[in-house]
Structure formats: C-alpha cells, structure tokens
Amino acid sequence: MALEYAQRYNRAYDAVFWIQCETKASLKQSFADIALRLELVAPEQNANFFENLQRTIEWLRLTSKKWLLIYDNAERNNLLTGCWPLSGTGALLLTSRSYFNFFEDEGRSGETVECFNLKEREELFMKLLGSKWQTENLGEGKMMSHIEEAAIHTLLDKTGGLPISIYHSANLIRDPDINPTQTVRRFMEHFENAFDALPPRAAAPRDHLIRALDTVWSISFANLTPNARVILNCLYLFEIGEYDECLNMIAIARTAVSDESSFLLSHLLNTEGVAYYELNMLGPSRRALEQCLEIRRSEFGNDHPEVAISLANLGNVECAEGNYDIAYEYLNEAAGIRESLGDEAAVMLGLNYMQIGHVKAQTDDDAAAYAMYQKSEGVFNKYPNALYRAYLDFAYGNLELKKGEFSTAAQSFEKARVRARQISNWHPLAAATNYKLGCAEFEMDNHRKATKYLNSALDIAEVRSPGNIDGTIARIQWKMSEVFLDETGGEYNEQGIKLKEEMEFRQKEIAERLGVDLRGMDEWPDREKSFDLLVPGYFR
Hints:
With 540 residues, this protein is mainly α. Among the domains are: 93 residues; 106 residues, no CATH class; 156 residues, Serine Threonine Protein Phosphatase 5, Tetratricopeptide repeat (Alpha Horseshoe), CATH 1.25.40.10. Helix content is 66%, strand content 3%. The protein contains 25 helices and three strands. It has a three-stranded parallel β-sheet. Helix 4 links the parallel strand 2 and strand 3. Helix 9 crosses helix 10. It starts with a helix and ends in an 8-residue tail after the last helix.
C-alpha cells in the first residue's frame, strides 16, 4: 500500500524517504542512509545515530522542499519515539500490523488505515481468488458452498484482517501443488495443522496476527525447493543480522523437512549453530553444529568441504569455551581438508589459519599465533577478501595489545575499523574495533580518545542490541567506568563507581542468561577478561 502510494504520487514530492522500522538496526541504518543522501554527513565521518537523526530531523523541519517519510513495518512505539519531525513541509505515512497512534497527535489531519473489517476482508479475498474460482466453488447449485463459506469466514477471522496474510493465503489456496483441490476448506486443514505445529519464537511470544502470518509462511516453506529454503535462511541471517528472528525462521523451515538426515537439514543446523554462536549461546550452538557434522560426515565422508565448514565452526565454539586442545583438533582437521582442495578452498583456508592463530594466542603461544596470522595474510594477499582481512587486522591488534605494543595495536585496530565500516557502519566488528581502540588509547593515557572510541563502540552495540544490556554493551560500559575512575582530576569518579557497580551486577545476569560459568571470577587478577566471556569468541 505504501509503495503504491509513493509511486502514484511521486511527482507531488521533491523527496521520498523510506525508513525500515522492523528493528533498531534497520531504523538507525535508514537514518544514516538519509543523512548521507542529503550530504548532512561526509561518508568518512564517524557520525553516530543521534547525530544522523538530529541532522535529518532539522533538515526536514527547515527545508522548503516537500517531502514524504514512509515508516514501514512500525511495531514498537518505544523504538520510534523522537524519530519523526514535529513540523515541516511534508507528510508522514506509517505502516503497521497494529492499530496505534504512534505520533500521539490527537489533532492530526491525516488518516489511519486500520486492519480490514469483515466486509473488507471478504471483498479483498474474493477479488484475489477471482471470479472463476467463485463460480466453481460458490456458484448456484454447488453442494459444498455453505461449507466453503464457513471455511472462508474462519480463515479471515484467523488472519485478523491483515492484508499480507489474506494475500498470501489466497495465492496458496489457488496453488495446486500446495492445495490440490484449490478449496478453502482443504486449505484450512493445512492451516490448522501448521498453526498447531508452529514452533515457539526465539525472540518473544507471538500475538494472534503474527501467529497467523507465521503459519502462512510455514505452509509456503513446505512448497519451496530445498535449496530455496536454505538460501532464504542464510540471506535472512547474513543480510539483516537479526539472529533471534533468524532462529525463528529456521524453526519454521525445519517443520517442512521430513528427512532428519538430509543435506537440507544439515544446512539449517549449520545456520542455527552459527546464529547461536553470534548470540554467544554456546551450548545450543554446539548441539546444532555437532548434529550438522554427523549428517555431513554420513552424507559426504570425511574429506568434503561441507565437513570442513562444520569442523571450523565447532572449533570456534570450543575455543570460545576455553577448550583449546579440542578447538585446535577441529580447526586443524578443517585446514587439512581445505589444503587438499587447492585454489577452490583458498579463502576459507586463509580464514582457517587465522582461527588456528586465535587458538594459539589464547594459550599464550604468541610466536605460533603470529606465524599462523602470517600464513593467513599470504593467502589473503593472493585471494583478497575484505571482511576476513579486517578480522586479520583485528587479530594482529589483539596480539600487539597483549604484548604491550599499544601504538602498533592502535594502528592495526584502525585498519580493521576502516575495513569493517566499508562493509557496514553497524557491523559488529566496527563495534569491536572501536572498543579495542579505546582500550589501546586508555593504556597510553589518552583518556579523551579512549572515551570517544568507547562511545562510538557503544552506539554501534546499542543498534545491534535486542533491546537490553547485552554482553557487548556491558563490556564497553565497564571499560568506560575504568576510564572515568582513572581520570586524575576525579571529575568523573562518582559516575565511574556507579557505572562499574551496575555493570558488574549486570554481568552476572547476562552470564546466567548465556550459560557462562563465572565461578571464581572475583579472584581473577584481570576482571576485564571475565567481561570478554560475554561476547562472541572472535571479538575477545
């Protein structure tokens, strides 16, 4: 509807901006894109979300141009507070599954389009099914027409007047591969079964509208080819970075997999394991990846590249849990497979060498770690990969930081930060490099620079956070408290004490949620290392 409006009335506006409101990350990325498009910030400028938002809102308020802002998929009021102009020469269009006055404007002159009422639902549904379908199933003299009408009313009630659910339901009903009889009563059997079998969401319980929509997606999954299902889940994970939602989509996709030993299931398990790893939930990550490895060994033998992927992922999990000998065995076996494959596996082999180097660094074998990083660098010089090269710069920086070479470490972290931002301003590596730059500057007594980098890290971490204080945020804020407490003037001493106490309290909550064992933590000589356990392994 919003797209149709924007296309139909495009000439009425000088500028049209689309703001994705599904998540905090997509919302902030939208405002960053608008600020860049309007040249309110320079591409190389490390502007945070609030700077982008304030400059955009000010431009909208002061410009004489007529603009249209489309807030798409707005579901959470607390996420959108303060994210629209209160005046200006433009218009706002907001789409949502919920009927809610997001703008809190009792005197607004615009219109709110609610979910369809019963009459509107039926009109849309019948139009989508078409006159031929109506004649064949509801025409005069059709014996089952009253049953079909009852099924239609039940379906429309279940979908709650949500147009996207009605639209896709109509398409599924007319699809002979999914619904051979092409009747609503038979489709309702599929719908009720899928509705009851729907797995719980990883992020939060569903309301009735979302449950109905997820049921429609579940039925759609059953008709996709295996490769399409796998690609959809992989894109969902790596493109939007919403790991809770990704896990939800995987759970729905798994209901459509009948063969528990299939290659398709192994792909879903691998994606599930990686998603849990990104959330630093290592127990469920290991379980998914071990099942994936078992299927792939059975399907392909021991020397297949898919087996190498599973081995390397399990090596990362074991390293994050401190099981370094087991991690080395997994990663070394993966490297052996990739070395035998030649050029086709070269990039992944370079990544493998870096992962082995990370294990060596964790066991304080710095010479071996550096040698593996050098091997990795040689591979990436021949077979460039921007993301992996950024991780390699980050790894070099960690090694140098540990050795007390703070200036050199800062240079390595800066290289990694620049490369990460070329991929995305909100990439998790961008947060990690800003954090490490803050640590390096702190060690060199550059408190102002340290605070600047830590604030930048916090901005990115809050964008990526599921809405609460997670391990990444807690680690950054604990380090900020250290900087405050080290200030010679004592100006921020009270603030530092309060922040430190809060983060050390939060640390225990987060560790319990993640299943991280912090017993004996108070006796550790370096409390900072205990906060490292709250973030994914390669950001430590």
